Amino acid sequence: MAESGLEPRLLHTISHDSTSVLSLAVDEQSGLVFSGSQAEDIYVWDLSTFQEKTRLEGHTASVLALELCPEKSWLFSASGDSTVRIWDTKTLSPLCVIHPADDRVGDIFALKWCSELQTLYFGCQNTSLQWITLTSITSAISQDEVRAVPIVRPHKFFDSGPHAGSQTRLSTSLSRSASGRSTPAAGWPRGSARGAGFSTPPLDYSPSDRVRRLQVEQRHMVSSAHSGYIYALDLLQKPDRHLDGGGQRRGGSKHMLVSGSGDEDIKLWSCTPDGLTQEAVLHHSDNGVLALASWGSCTLFAGLQGGDIEVWDVETGRVVRTLHAHDDDVLALVTVGSIADEDTCILYSASADGRIRRWDASFKCTADWVAHNGIVLSIASLPQAVGNQGNIVLTGASDDRIKVWDLLFSPGTLEKHSRPTAGPSSLGTADPMISALAQFVAFKSVSANENLREDCRQCAHWLKNHLTDLGAETALLPGAEGHNPLVLATFRANKSRLAPRKRVVAYAHYDVITPGPCESWSNSPWSLTGRDGYLHARGVSDNKGPCLAIAYAAAELAKEGTLGADVTLVVEGEEEAGGCGFTEAIRAAKEQIGPVDVILLSNSYWLGEDTPCLTVGLRGVVQADLEVRSDFQDRHSGVDGGAVREPMIDMIKLLASLTEGERVLLPTFYDSVRPITPAERAMYAQIAQMKHSRASGQTVEALMARWRLPSLSVHRISVSSGSGSGNATVIPSTVTAAVSLRLVPDQDLDVITDTLIAHVSAHFGKLASPNRIGVYIKHRADWWLGEDSAYSTALASAVQSEWGQAPVSIREGGSIPSLAILEKELEAPAVHLPMGQASDRAHLADERLRLVNLLKGKSVVKRWLASSAISNASQR
Ligand code: BES
C-alpha cells in the first residue's frame, strides 16, 4: 500500500479511437505525445491542448514500441509488421523503413537508441537482437532520397519462440484486455497484430514511395540472444574506467544494453561500434521479464510476469530486493529524476491489474491508484527539468484511453498549489491557470440559490486572494443587501505611474447557473475534468475560465514588465440572477475605479466550432412573472369543475394574446426596431454563406431572428403549491407564467416594460374574470451594440495573430445586464471577445471549454493589452 497517501489528480483523459494504447513517447522538444495503437497508426497529440494533431500512417500492424531521438528530431516505432520506422518529429512525416536482417522476426517488441553510438537496437519475437547504425544514412534521410531495395521475403506464419510455454501467464493477462474485440489488446505475443501476428513488407515499391528502406545487415544481429521473446530493452551508461594498452585511462563511457525476455533471463551486452558482446546473464526468478528501467548506471528494475519488480545491482549482479508490486503482470516501467538527487528519484510501474504505483529512492510505494479500467500497457513521464513538473505521468491502456496524471496536485500538497504564480508555462498540463481554474470551479457559486450564498462568498474571497497573489491590488465590494459581493482587482502598468497610460476595465462574473436536478453530467459539475481536449465543469466557460484568462493575461504581462495599461477586473457575483445591485455597486466604486478608456468582456460564444469571432451586439431582456390569482384555495376538479373561473384557463388565454406565430402582439412593439441597412444585410448574408453556418442552418432569416429582431418566450407555467399541486384532479388557485422579451436597438427598456404591463392588464380586463392579474418584473438588461474603434480593431488583429484567421463579427441573442450599465456609468466603449465555441453548453449539462480556446484566449488578451491601442509601452 502507498505510505504517503499521495493522490494523483487526473488532468486529462484522451479517447484513443477504440484502440488500445500499446506504447507512448513524450517529446518535450516539440510539445507532442506519440501513442502507438493496437491498430496500425501512431497518434500524435498536442501536449498543451490534448488535441490530436495528426496520425502517422505506415505500419501494417500494432505499434509495440516507440523511442525518441531528440537530437535528430526522430521518432522510432516498432511494430507487429516486423519493421521499424523512423519519423521526423518536426514535419511529422515518414523518413525511413528498417527491415530486420532476418525476415522471420515476428513482432518487434522493444527499441533502444544509443545516441553516442548512433545505433538503434531492437528486440524481436524470434529471440534475436538486431541493430543498425544510422550515422551514415543521416544525410540520405534528410535528402528524402528514393531508393527502392527489393527485399524478397517469404510470407510465413511465425510460430512461437523457443519458450512459448513461458508466455502462458502473460498471454492470459493480455487476452483479458481484448474486452470483446477481435484481437488481443496488447498486440504482444503471437497472433496479436491483425490476427496473424505479422505480415511481410510489400515487394513492389512505387516511384512515389519517397520513404527510404534500409535492411539490417546479417552481421548486425545476435540471432538467438535469448531463448524466449525479447520484450524489453534498456541502456546503461557507465564511465569507462579501463586502461588502454599504453596504461592510460580511457575517457568516454561504456554502454551496456540490457535485454529482458520471456525466458526469465536478463542479459547484459556491452555495446561498441563493432557490435554486441554478452557480458552477463542475470537470473533470479522463474517469471518472464516484461519491462525494464534503470536509475543511473547500477540500479536496474525488471518488471515481471505475475506482478513483482526485481531491483538489481548491475555491478554485483545481485537482486537487491524484490518488490511485490502488483497482483498481475508488470507491463511497463519508467524512471524519473537522477540518482544523484534522491528527492527526485522516482519509479512508476504499470500493470495488467489496471494500477499504477509510484516508488521513491528507498523503494517505498508513495502512490498507488487504479488508473484504468483495463490493462495498463504503456507509461511515459514528463522530464523533471520541465518547470519542476516531474510528476506528470501519462498512461495508456486496453480501455482505449490515454490518461494524464499530476502527482503534485493532491490534498496533501494543495497548499503548495493554492498560490500559483503567473508566468509563461511550457505545458498546458501543468499550467498554473488550469490548476487555479480547478479550484475556482470547485466553489458552488450559484447566485440564484440562497442556500449557496456562503459558497458564493467563499468563492469571492478565494478569487480576491488569488488575484492578490497574481500581483493585483484587490478589494471586495459589497453587493446589494443579501446579495453577493463583487471582486475588484487592479494590475498596475509597469511604466512610471506618472506616465500617461490607458485604463482598462475587464468585466467577468464568478456566479454560475445551478446544475438542474434532471441534468445528467458525465462527471461532477464541481470538479474540473479534462476530456479529449476539453475542460468540463459548471462555469468553466460561463464565465470562470474567461475570467481567469483575462486575469492571467494581465498578470503575465505585469510579471514580464510589459503591462502598458492599468487593468481593473470587476468580477460580479449576481450576473446569472439578473445583476441585482450592480449599478449601485459600480456607482459606489466609481472613484476607486477611476477614469476608464475601454471595457473588455468575454462572456459569449463563437458562432460555430472553428472560426474565431468577436461579439458586436447583444439583445436586451425583460423577464417578468405573470400571475393569475383567484380568491379560492386549490379545488378538486370533480367537485368544483365548471363552478369556478379557473386561473389556468385565464392564463392560457392571456398568453395566447401575446404572440401570433413568431410575431409579438404587444402594440407598438416593433415600432422602434431599427431598420436594417444594406451593409448589415450583407453581413448576415456573408455569415450565412460560411461553412459552419450552412451546417447549422444559420440562414439570413434565422440570424436576423436571433440577433436583430425582438422576441417573446414563455419559460414556465407553475401552479400554486397547495396539496396535490400539479395533480390532474386539482384546479390550482394561482398560476404563474415566467415570460421574457428580448429587445433590440432601438427599443426602450422602460417603454417596452410599460407596454407589456399595459397589454396584460388590458387583455385580462377583456376576459372579465373575477380572478386578479399581477405582473412582476424580475430582471432587465438593455441591448448593446459595439462601435468600431481603435480598440475593436486591435482586438480583431490580436485574434487574427493568435488564430491565424480574422474573426467574424457576430451579434448574439443573449443578454448581459452589466454591459450597458458599465458603458453608461464608466463612460467608455466596450469590446467583447467570445472565448468558447458554440458547443460549450453553457447553462447545460457537461458545460465545457476547449483547452486551446482558453489558452489562446489568454494570449489574445495579452496581445490586445500589448497593442498600441492600449499600451503606452508599445507607443515608445
Ligand atoms: N453569457 C450569457 C449571455 C449570453 C447568452 C451571451 C447567450 C451570448 C449568448 C449570460 O450569462 C446570461 O445567461 N444572461 C442572461 C441574462 C439574464 C439573467 C438577465 C440571458 O441572456 O438570459
UniProtKB/TrEMBL annotation:
One short Pfam name that applies is M20_dimer
State the Gene Ontology terms under molecular function: metal ion binding; peptidase activity
Q: Where are the WD repeats?
A: 14-55, 56-91, 369-407
Looking up SUPFAM superfamilies in the UniProt record yields: WD40 repeat-like, Zn-dependent exopeptidases
**Peptidase M20 dimerisation domain boundaries:** 617-765
* Key words, A-Z: Hydrolase, Metal-binding, Protease, Repeat, WD repeat
Q: Which residues form a coiled coil?
A: none
Record has Calcium as a keyword? no
Q: Where is the composition biased (Low complexity)?
A: 165-183
Instruction: Extract one GO BP annotation from the record.
Output: proteolysis
Give the top-rank taxon of the lineage listed in the UniProt record for this protein.
Eukaryota
Q: Where is this region: Disordered?
A: 159-206
List the InterPro entries hit by this protein, alphabetically: Cyt/Met_Dipeptidase, GSH_degradosome_Dug2, Peptidase_M20, Peptidase_M20_dimer, WD40/YVTN_repeat-like_dom_sf, WD40_PAC1, WD40_repeat_CS, WD40_repeat_dom_sf
Transmembrane intervals: none
Q: Which family does it belong to?
A: Belongs to the peptidase M20A family.
Identification of the protein by name: Zn-dependent exopeptidase
Q: Which organism is it from?
A: Ceraceosorus guamensis
